[in-house]
Amino acid sequence: MTDALALFDADLAPAAAAIVEPVTPPAPRPGRGDPPDGPLLLAVDGNALVHRAFHAYGGTTGGARYGFFALLSVVCDQVSYDGLVIGFDCRAHSRRRARFGAYKAQRPDKHEQLEAALDELPGIASAMGVHVVVSAGWEADDVVASAAAAAETAGWRCVIASPDRDVLGLISARTSVLQITGGDKPIRRVTAAGFRRRYRITPSQYLQLAALRGDSSDNLLGIPGIGAKKAAALLRLYATVNEAVADPMGCRSVLGPELGQALIDDVRGDASVFRRNIELMELQRDLDIALERARRDANPDEILAVLRTHRMTGLHARMCAALCPRDQAAPPVGDADAPPDRS
Known about the structure:
With about 350 residues, the chain is of the alpha/beta class.
């Protein structure tokens, strides 16, 4: 297991130059603790971290548990944040599956040890002092979307940490995304300017691009023949798909006669694939997020007690640096860096 830890840290350690430039907060106002443009909220897709940790640490519950907090410490190291929210999927039921039975239906059953990790990790993180949110029927993406909306409404800034492309539509002047990916840059920050350079549309149009393209990972087919490039070409000329459909000649000119007409027929039809995708892909943004509970105030002793319970004391310094107030140093820990168990 120590080899797995070395490989994991080599890919994800904050010292790796290829990861991302740290998000440096502006200098605080004299006599005030918050930066001039408001405190910063870090909103993390917890399910994504659990899945990545499970596969990186040998496919065991103990490995997922240890890897989750190791990766969380790396994510936290990217941002000088004031508040932290971790969202997890509701495990009891899915509102989207209730609307559309085929939603994610193609995915194989999860390994039983991954299921166990997904069951236990929200409680463990909460016991460490993290503000964990699970909202009935909704997914982790809906939690981070609501967290971003709550932050912007309250005058905060927000950084979302997630590998899911759907959150790109949440990017704004006050919200950016840390994409958790693979390859040379396992964590990459995407801002509004970076998004526009990549897609040449605005973040607010991304949902429509995704609805046209579809999302095979969620078992949502798009409009046949329309991929990301053609969807972006259409949205560069029209603010919305409805505006494009309202101009049939222009729509057919951009997409071609047959494909343009197919889109027009779909949007105007009773069983529109585009409208169905919009309904299922649109993230919920009004879930209850208590920003004051997200404030960075974890206690080193409480963190150590939780880590001892799960044989992870070697993570104590890293978790204190990630979760505790910046002026609160972790006390020394005498225990050896115990590897995760294989239970």
